[in-house]
Queue: 3 jobs
Job 1
Amino acid sequence: MRMIIDGRVVTAEKGRTILEVARENGFDIPSLCYHAGVESWGGCRLCLVEISKTSRPDRSELVVSCIYEAEDGLSIKTASPKVIEARRDVLEMLMARAPESAVVRELGYKYGIIETAYVKRENADKCIMCGICTRVCEVMGPAAITLAGRGGERVVTPPYGEAEDCIGCLACAQSCPTGAIEFSETPDERSIWGRTFKRMRCKLCNAPMLPKEQVNFVANKSGLSPLYFEVCDSCRKKQSAKTFARLVS
Amino acid sequence: MPISSQNELQTRRSAAEKSFRSARRRVMICAGTGCVANGALEVYDELLKAITDAGLPVIVELNSHDDKKKPKAHDYLAKSGCHGFCQIGPLLHIMPDDILYCRVKTRDVAEIVAETLTKGAVIEKLLYKDPNSKERRKGRADIPFYAGQTRIALKRCGEIDPESLNAYLADGGFAALEKALFEMTPEKVVKEVEDSGIRGRGGAGFPAGRKWRTCIEAAGDVRYVICNGDEGDPGAFMDRSIMEGDPYAVLEGLMLTAYAVGAKQGYIYVRHEYPLAVQRLTKAIAVLHTEGLLGKNILGSGFDFDIQINRGGGAFVCGESTALMRSIEGKVGEPRAKYVRSVVRGLFDKPTVLNNVETLVCIPGIVKDGGKTFKKIGTKNSSGTKAFSLVGKVKNTGLVEVPMGTSLRKIIFELGGGIIKDRPFKAVQTGGPSGGCLPSSKLDLAVDFDSLTAAGSMMGSGGMIVMDDRTCMVDVARYFIEFLVGESCGKCNPCREGLKQMLAILTRICKGNGVPEDIARIERLCDTLENASLCALGKSAANPVRSTLQYFKDEYEAHINEKRCPGGVCRELIRFDITDKCIGCTACAKQCPTAAITGERKKLHVIDQEKCIRCGSCVTACPSDAIDIT
């Protein structure tokens, strides 16, 4: 199917979102809650675009491009005045919510906001409530963290503050767009959500590996033996290479 | 014995009807939430005891079976659902004489039995006193609050015993289901609903028939129907009253919807804060199971259907359809960003019809009497009636149901009896927290879905808050935004962050710290909320601000530029003074918590502005309206 993005005709496959199609074609649409690895959520509202359909060319509406799927004949404006205005205002709000976040600040600069006119949040952290961490944790499996509370009181937290299901994989922190999730990692330990995880060591080379909790979780989910995880990836590869060499020689 | 065929249903109904007709008088005590809180159940117990002691023949439940004997003369005493006029409860209504007793207490019972039930005499002092003419009015026909109504959705509320299947049958209950199952195809049922033109009473006003049609046309063979009883607008209680007062009709409406769209499972989503509604619906569902009207092969027609009740935790946003469905699925109740409608992909990703309680309760009537009959009432694009919760500074408060197209003036000044103390009318807020405030120039507006939207407000679920001249419109906007800040789910930025910022600006204006640029900032926030929010809560959240800015911009300007609150509400901006209307009664001085008022008896009193904390106690206490607020 064909769509028009900012005056240019692009082709799109059914089932793909406007955001995916537009980015593949080089259009710059900002977003903060989109992550290709998890289900779209449409919360940050930065990827808003203005669309109109061939059936009603006189009518346009703002939609979030990370969810709206490609339609034949759709006309899309990624930077109309209405889009820019909404995006700017949302960015200005986010700059008041998370003044310390460099990612938000730079996006704001890009849209011409030097300083937010809104009241800044007291004791603000960098969290912008994009929900990527909780969606990642759900996809990962443990669903150890969740969004609790409503409205401005909403926080990312393990249920009742107890991270008992956390496996210390750090995926939440790695995928956070603003680096708002605090964690630490040493060869011996990982710490996150108030818990400390002891890391296993490779039986062969003593290299630091995953925490025991993560190994058990993955082993259980994948059906692989926990023994599989007793050596590190590179030792395992070396072993396989040796076995292979022995077989062919 | 379950009712397993059309024939058996008819036999059962005629027995109930006969039992109903044979009662000499029907004495209905309101057992709605309001009247129960005021002691209605104690009145009922006392009344039953007194009637029995007096040796008067009485029944408390209608017959299920006709014993063929000619019944002896007797009265029928029952607890009914909400009569709608909670302000003067507990209410006791005697039919067919149409005698309405107000504020009935247990101490009145002996007299009611001795005078009214024995001799047929009317007890003057228990009658409703008209707030304007001060005359006593005997029955509903003489009370404008009732006489001005056309009741369809609230038809049985207050008229029948909501816990009695026989009472429902005696009033034509399940005749629509019977007609649908044995005389109509599902297509015919949809057609009737389409013909009726009924639009969703939950807020958005989407045509119910079109919604059903889309559901039928959606792919898949599993479909669901949901009754939305998550009434969340503060002050609105029509859905609660219907669920409490006519639960069987809600269930019948849902059954008809299911039959029409081909669903086998239905859900009723009710707020946890509505325990009586949950209790009555639960009981009604259990009774229908026992009687064979729910479950497999209903009335032998081959139609299978079951209903489950889900209790909501009281989040306002769970009234939004996608949030409600997620909540039923056991997930966090927050809206889903979607461009596929839930009628195509809804609960558990299946086509789902979700209708509001007030919409569903109209369905049996539409199916039974035909959609065209329903369409005759109301306006061209908004057929039927609408129930409103009339509250605020109005003399008669309660639930009123009027045809679409009735003017605000009629609702407020005829049914509502006008403004308390005959103060000037300032505004009426319609549509709940996401609605708007309309000024006196809109009093002649013929209320329907489209006219309210065009005027900058909305129908919403039918809240109607009347405000007098002592209301500050900036404060009203601030109040509603504060409510929405607490109820925003927090998923999308414009609603979560934008409302918080809106509240900050409105609060500072009310405190006298507003700056001229604030108005432009508010307008920009309104645009962003409308254009960029994820769900209807955020998209309509700007309405209270938008409409007050449209009609009462001078009040915003007075707060910002002159540091003055014209409504005399914002404490930082007002002062109280005693004028020469003062009669020196000392009532204000006695009430003043900081002893700021001094003066001799029968002489003009004075307020010490240093000591005054602007609590307004003196205004309430003053019998001669001598306190000036500026």
Note: The domain at 575-629 of chain B is CATH 3.30.70.20 (Alpha-Beta Plaits).
Job 2
Amino acid sequence: MEENKDVLKTDQPDCVLEIKDLSIRYDTDDARVYAVNGIDLKLKKQTTLGLVGETGAGKTTTVLSLLRLVPDPPGVITGGEILVNGNDVMKLSRKELSAMRGKEIAMIFQDPMTSLNPVMTVGDQIAESIMIHENVSKEEAFKMAQKMLETVGISGDRAVEYPHQFSGGMKQRVDIAIALACHPNILIADEPTTALDVTIQAQVLKLMKDLKDQFQTSMIMITHDLGIVARTCDEVAVMYAGRIVEEGTLEEIFKKTMHPYTEGLFNSLPNMKDRSSKLKPIKGLISDPTVDYQYCAFADRCPYASDKCWQEVPEKRYYSETHMVMCSAYDDPQFHIARGHENG
Amino acid sequence: MSKKTNAAAQPGRKTQGQLIWHQFKKNKGAVIGLIAFLAIVGLAIIALFIVDYDTQIAGMLIKDKLQKPSAAHIFGTDHLGRDVFLRVIYGAHYSLLIGFLGTGVSVLFGTLIGAVAGYFGGKLEWFIMRLVDVLMTIPTMLMATCVVAAFGISITNLILAIGISTAPHFARTARASVMTVRGNEYVEAAKAIGTNDFVIMFKHVMPNALSPIIVQATNRVATCIIAAASFSFLGLGVPSPLPEWGAMLSDAKPFMRTQPYLMIFPGLAIMITVLALNLIGDGLRDALDPKLKR
């Protein structure tokens, strides 16, 4: 194991986070839910990776496992490795985990209305993180918290106020301040703008992008909004039923779309050029997560599905160093999806 | 940007306490309860200064015995010639002391074990809650009788007996409340920045889980006062000659037909105190309930 770590460190100096063959399931009394089924991911230094997929695809479970925050029980990590800055998260002790959370990886949560403690001032909440990880006094931590608030565009005087005195967009800024308080090198944003209205979304996204550059942070952005992906991400991984079905650079995913599911996602967006055209949603429902798919989980919704799709899990095909697709249809070298490559 | 937000924040600056008070004020019953309660506390404090314990509480003035209420003795005098009014207001100490400390013991033990059970869950929770279930099957009266019988009659033992026997109720409330708060995203967010379980429990979970416990505690004070009076009435509580209200009722039993005021005034004292506390409890419940805001 030790050897393995060294190899990683030397081979990929730019890689801050690596997930290898990670599987997570939830064992409840009435069902076994296969949330994540063997995914591989790499996050390069100072890049933003977009994790895209429908509700229930396993996006949140994946990122929670990076902090070992998957609720256990019922969550069980059944296999795989997670390397954060070269350290295997699965092997960390409680104390080491505590030291890592917030300091190396920090997380911005989906709903700023519920992710702040209503009975603590925002300054104290930012200072809490600083006090855990830095060796500073309470007063110093509070001063640093005020500075952090100013960094996210809120007056430092407001550090003594409670979350209910802030608007939604402001609260999300506070959330960002908490996450960045200890300058983590990996930032996870779990649908950070879903709960905000569109005008605030743009502000928050811009702020995150600016701060990411300022603090030289790498970021995983979970979203189901392809517009946000286009604006913020360098690389994109598309998840479906606990697997990454297509992965590549922003350009590869948007301009050279290969997987039928990714195509479906793009087709369900309104077409700005022809506004009278009908939306083309992906037919059917998201696959049943209690089934342990030993074939392509997307097969029953896929317009290109053939018999082969029902027989085995498609293998990974690489079309460039970065572009990976998991689809059996490409066995036929003539196969191409219907979506033209120019619109997007 | 920051200028704008500052201006917007100015008018509505209210602390949590001010908000609760604002809400509490709207409930007339609760305010009346609070006034009555403060009056009782005030009288109890005044009593400390104007009453001479040795002569007026523990002494005997046989020539004045069993007088009807008059200008000199507005509540009359008892069978040993002691002024009932002074005894009632002096007795408020014992009732309030037992009520609050008994509840305090109860809240402390109950909330602590309930919160631990609710927060950590699993086998620990199962074990604690079954223990609580067993404690709940023992009637309060029986339990307290056993404690007093084993350790002797004293105020401290009475407080412990009442406290321990009502603790299971708080354990249940605390557990349920902590379980709801535990699921909140800010608890997860606290974990995500590396906060340890101990800090999360006391800094993030408990303050948010307290309101049902506070409400239950206010009502429990009233119950404890009644329990204390009952024990004293049975001779298991505050030893004579201390003017605990229940003990006064007990002392007055033989004179019930001829001098009913001997029972009426301590009885009224118990009633008013309990009613006041219950009204306050109701007011607090409404004030602390976020669903009823505005």
Note: The radius of gyration of chain A is 21 Å.
Job 3
Amino acid sequence: MRPLADIYSVWWADLRMLRHLWFRFLVTSLVSPALYLVAFGYGLGRGTTVEGTKYLEFVIPGIIALTAMNTSFSSAGMKLNVDRLFYRSFDEMLMAPVGSVSLVIGKSVIGVVRGLVICAIFVVIGLALSSMSITPLFVLTLLVASFLFAFMGVLAAMMTRSHQDMATFTAVLLTPMTFLGGTFFALSQVPDWLKALLYIFPLTHASLCLRAEALGKDFPWVSFAGLVLFTLFFFCLSVRAVRRASI
Amino acid sequence: MNDSVITVENLVKTYGQIRAVDGLDLAVNAGEVFGFLGPNGAGKTTTIRILTMLTRPTSGKVLMNGFDMLARPIEVKRGFGVVQQHMSLDRELTAWECMELHARLHHIPGGERKSRIEELLDYVELTAEARRKVQDLSGGMKRRLQIARALVHRPKVLFLDEPTVGLDAQSRRRLWELIRRMNQDGATVFLTTHYIEEAEGLCNRVGVIDRGKLIALGSPLDLRMNLGLVTVQTMTNGKVSYSFFPDMESATGHIRSLGPDTKTIAVRPSNLEDVFVEITGRKVEEES
């Protein structure tokens, strides 16, 4: 077995497809975060401050975390779900002499790459519109978060039995995270019992880490550790799901 | 010729209370085209999924090319190729990219990859379509591409699951020629089909599965001889029945003995369809 070569081989197919469809990908991936930026950054939050920070500066790191989640999850998960259930082309990979760890990582990398590309565009926008700063920890957090949500996408794609199940997964898990995961408001604004509840969302920790680094505040190492643990958790579950799908 | 490349011993797969495969024993010989027939719900699809490593058996043993499927899965996966019934190709990739992906997944070195893809696309007469996207190919072309892809890593065993379903007559005949050629070139072929002429024309041996068990095994001629080489189809009071005889003489004797209420509809050589219907009680077409 050659894990790195196998990971690249699995990734290669998605990469070729991205080459064919890059424009469609860019347009569809940029629409939602751009709308969030305009609606919340300029519309709802114009002239307001959160924890002493202009709302626009506050919300941009959150939107970057949110973009990492949505793009990585859907890029890894949606295509895999369609390949597995509709075209059944994923069977070819399950029947190839490739280990399940390589399969999971290979299928996740496309989500990570696409997530990072879109986030990079928003980082540039953020740098132009606010005084946010980019640090190595910011990049590391973004990378870990992208892997986390890509693994979550792979897990969802492997567990669901229909495309509708995938939509249900998104509605039940991703949509609450979108609006409650610390993207658009500070956790200090909600009651303690709700704050405790919101910490179960991986996106909350990604938002906290990215915002702290972007705004030059103390880095929340506990949240970063939580992010890493979530990543390992979803990775292990994804490997288990792939192993259960074949011998 | 008689070494087994696939050995299945007491294979069982249960889903709750249902035994989809119920103690299946089977041996497929090196170099043969083996036909695997069975009515709907007989356990055929489950068996194929187990043999192609997509479903884990509940119990039993499968050896392929001498490797135990559960103990040495990677080695087993290196030794077989699969053409699935559905078009399991990435629509957005080109024909060449589909081939290259498979070659990469099977660890074909870069230098060899190009020449082997060229050779196989030529083999299935798709060289001119190499740069076309899969979604733009005809059904027959896609099927040939699937076959070429399955051969990239030079497997010893090739599983063809209903390879000609949905193809027109011309594409089907072209594919039969290709299957014969692959077999002559050394591949052992494990074929499922519900086209009876396909099984009769291509297979050295045929196995029939029903209710998870192998209920008949032999060459098409052997199976016909066991049943009777001549079929007499008669109708009595609107009800059609079939009788089988070892030769035309005994069939003719039977026809002479029929009463006035019975009409003879046809006297013809028996075929695998007759064998299938007699032992399973269902028509082959009903299976898919």
Note: The two ends of chain B are 32 Å apart (CA to CA).
